[in-house]
Amino acid sequence: MQFYVNGESKTLNDNACLVDLIESMGLVGKRIAIEVNQEIIPRSQHADYRIQENDQVEVVHAIGGG
């Protein structure tokens, strides 16, 4: 299935969930926020939320600094 992450085309297996996307991006354990089609998906729902064809996903990675 094809969808978009931060404006770029991405492909994952059908029935992929947000956890699969996080793993494929190497962001496991990182402080991130995910929005799908302009709706924030809480971390507690990442394993259950199935990505659909042509979804628009935005992944924001928090970066600390001082």
Automatic annotation (TrEMBL):
Protein name listed in UniProt: Sulfur carrier protein ThiS
Superkingdom classification of source: Bacteria
Stored Gene3D superfamilies: 3.10.20.30
Pfam families to which the protein is assigned, alphabetical: ThiS
SUPFAM superfamilies: MoaD/ThiS
CDD domains listed in its UniProt record: Ubl_ThiS
